[in-house]
Fold each of these.
Amino acid sequence: MASIQKRHTASSEIRWDVRYRDPDQRHRTRTFHRKVDAQKFANLVEADLARGEWLDPGLGKETFGEWARRWQSTIAGLAPKTRESYESILRRHLLPRFENTPVSRIDHPMVLALMAELTSTGSGAGTVRNVRDVLRLILELTRRSGAIRTNPVEGAKVPKKPPAQMVFLNADQIMTLAQEVTNPPIRRGAGEHRRAAYPERGLLVRFAGFTGLRSGEIVALRAEAIDLMRGRVQVLASASEAYGKLQFGPPKTYQRRSVPLPKTLLDELTTHLASKDSSDFVFVSARGGPLRHSNFYARHFKPAAIRLGLPQTTRFHDLRHSYAAMLIAENAHPRAIMERLGHSTIQVTLGTYGHLFPSLEASLTEALDDVYRGAKPTPPAKVREIKG
């Protein structure tokens, strides 16, 4: 129970002290000039303690910057690329805005104002959403720690991020792109681009287009993962770039898988791997180290796609989409596509590529029509004979 005590100061002024114990049985005191204010506070404290909703006023006075540093220590177990992204958002967008603000003073209108400012200054929907989500994570830690009663980010809506436009290349286009990557125009004084040909880069494009592996999975691929006897590639690891370094870990969704290789591609890989040890990377940089996908994309893939006049939105990941589209065109079962692509569930596969399946409706309807026209009723006498 909270108690109210009247007290005279050294200057003979009257003060009203509200004394109570917090949930940890520590003595707490708050002073008021008026008895009515002290009574209101005492009533609120008693109600909050009874409901288990008491907040530590000291925690609420701590700044957003202090809580952000506390939160950073809780994300050490995340993937390095994710952690780097969170820290970048915190450094670029949140600390400049809230670093010295007590968390108890951050309210819903302030959150909405930040979202509106980001949008009005040209930040994309994805950036605004990511900033909102990191802010929510930090303030959720303060809520669960008893510094604030509700998370002011809850209910803050942001523009929807438009889905990335998929570009589907057919087999001929993949081969043409690979050839262009292999034989780019020679540019004098352009370092690596002074080479006349890059056959290993062209092979990388064909490999991606006819296996559906993600870029990180290709970067992490070692020679021992290519089963030349069985004609399969074992997807065991993935790489990402974070903090200026390559970071290696399990594949996305932690789904290890085995993907069959087309016979001709297998023959090319056999020749490519002839001089490599089992622990060597299948695809390497110009200096022989692990391949940096960002460099390959900027120096080889994207320029080749532009020279060929492919859609401006063409990305390396579209080779994976093209692989899925080719499987669908060959009437592959969604489950088989899911397993080859390493999706966590078949719902992910159908959600990503379901719009491609309706293109098979016509052939399915025609096939059903053939069955319909070929079906003949069985004479009643024959039916009785069969039953007997």
Note: The chain has three domains: 3-54, 64-144, 171-350.
Amino acid sequence: MTLDPHSDESTELSQKEAGAYYTPSDVAAALVKWVVRTGSDRLLDPSCGDGRFIAHHSNSVGIEQSAVATRVARERAPASKIHRAEFFSWAAGTPERFDAAAGNPPFIRYQMFKGETRDRALAHCRGVGAEFSRLTSSWAPFLVVTASLLRSGGRMAFVVPAEIGHAPYAAPLLEYLVANFKTVHIVAVRNKLFPDLSEDCWLLYADGFGRHTDHLQFTAVDTYNPKSRPPPVGVTISVTTWRSIWKRRLRPFLMSADARDCYHQIANRQDTARFGDVASIGIGYVSGDNDFFHLRPSVAANLGIPLQFLQPTVRNGRALPRERLTKRTVDKWRVADEAILLLRIPKTLRALPRSVLSYLDTDKGKQAKTGYKCSNREPWYSVPDVKVPDFFLTYMSGKEAALVSNDAGCTCTNSVHSVTVKKGEAMEDVLRAWASPFVNLSCEIEGHPLGGGMLKLEPREACEILVPSALTLSAMPTRVVDEAVNVMRSWRHYGDR
């Protein structure tokens, strides 16, 4: 949990803000049994919460910021030493070193992991050889700093977000682990350890601090059965292979070896393109105040806004038809009086119509003007980065990502990706291949799960989607690819009830 250690309880953050979701007791017990080898082993939990890890070993130290959780932890683990402190500050000053560490570090996304706490964390990580960007979530630096407090030969076992399998900021963590531990074993768990959370959790076991390894151990299980040792290793992954072929991601190892071999071979074929070679993929515009800048046709007509200042727009991917967005569809939106007209005012235009000036001067306009995005651009009412792309690509998708032709000349918000063709002839190949199982698989591999069964494709990820030639597609091992698609969808819980 996260708060100022000198504050009172009234300032404590919510469970979601603090990233505090407590581990099932049987899981905590199993991880502690693995890391603790003798009664004299000194155990550290860097974010001990209510004490359910340290309660399983009396020779323990727990760090916790929440006054409420600290009280509960002291009652649950009376033999343990518990410090109410901010972990990164405590770690920078403690001379103590540990034989083992276990826990469930707080999962605080980068938007809230900020300020002096983040600066201390990243500085400590740099000092021990792990370089994180400011876009990292809190749990990864927690693990690096925790490991740096181990004695030679030390061990650690942690519950970690499934983002360890794909997030860019997880790569520096794994690089640190293989450079500093004899063994690193990641256990992917499909069924949720925390049933009330959309976030999936995996397990990390590391042993032999002070050594290094040239491979990662990986196991995928449907359900974790808490025992005093990890599940058997499923596959041994060369660190070189992990870095070069799979771009420092572990999610591809959820698939069969046949599927990985097929994907790698097709990626290396000369007649296979990357989507980013054929088209530019980017996010749509950010208005700064969607309610103000998006008008219903009836409202625009009553205000007398000239048509040249109104650009039809796609507000989100759910509005898109499957393959082509036509003027007929936009006309249906108009008849339904949906708020699909973007107030688009050129940045260089100073002489504005009276109707537009009147709308800018309304209470809604005055409120929009003070917003963060609007107040930091000149003029505040000119929405930047408004493009009319050739295609739209869904940013977040259910079963599969949709690529939709923009026949209606619409623009789009940042809830949808804009696709501008660079190579027209090659784009025809993309369109022919898009609905194929292999491109669906490539979207699963290059993208990542969002939660709730959704597939998320960032622009940089979409650029990496593989587009094989028609000849290669015709020779595809259908069963292998279909099975891999189903496996990857099952791991992001698409179709789960």
Note: The domain at 9-252 is CATH 3.40.50.150 (Rossmann fold).
Amino acid sequence: MKKKVLFINFGGIGDEILFLPSIISFKKEFPDARVTLALEERSAGITDLTSVIDEVIYVQKSKIGMLKLLIKMWLKRFDCVVSSGSNKLISILLFLSGIKSRAGYDTGGLSRKLLTSAVLLDKNRYAVKMYHELVTPFTSYFTDLPEFNKVKKQFKKTGTILIHPGVSQKSLKQGIVKTISPYDWAELIRYLAIEGKELILTGGIDDAEVLDIIKCNLPKTLKYVDMTGQNSSLQALAELISGAEKFVCSDSAPLHIASGVGTKTFVFFGPTDCAKLIPDNGLVIPIMNNYPCSLRPCLWERRTKSCTEPGCLKFDLKLAAEQILQG
């Protein structure tokens, strides 16, 4: 019986959403288990979407942060720990915790000795499936998409296209570019407006600068609903996405929210691998170009930063709009 379980997963909010099905499957097997999630503070919003997590522990990815986490693992006396880290040192951290049941990725001989369950790490698949391997030693349940039990699904309004152009500000500061420019977003919106659809523009506080540029480059006569800054939580954003007929976004956290609420979604992909980031249910459509680059997809595969001239993010926006309208 697993009474107290610790899940460890570092990354942005998108990573936490992709990891969530693993926690849900575990909870289905052990409904009385108390679930604690150790994560970075920037991803705290995951609790806006689900009640399956009973407690969160904020961790800084540093030597001191790992030491503090280890001390908390000792004090809280967990029955089980599941970690998504692929660093070879993770198995040592879990072993030193003294937790009886320890699951993590097989990173070599040491991990097989120190973990009670060392599972295959297959990065060449949809991330939900990759993460879910971690809980297969404990449950036969398989949750294939994020489930948000705090989100009230809305009736879909026919003819509405919700647009969220934002991306993580942290990624931009790190030199990671995964979306088209604000000027391209404005051009796309102009093409979408030709068909008379109800266009809704949204984004959070972090997206204010991008959204201002977009709005300044739209014709004053173009009609759209401006909901920028009105989504105070991920729950509110999820409900807004749920009520749209179609959703257009970047490779960012809102994409994974859309996967969970079942809205048909169109995503601009450039340097990242769409096969690892979208489910194969036909509801999430990648928008890509034919840019001839032998390194593509390069981001995370071969680079940790974007190249200086990302031709993979140059699109025929009229064709992209037609793909969205006809899809």
Note: The two ends are 47 Å apart (CA to CA).
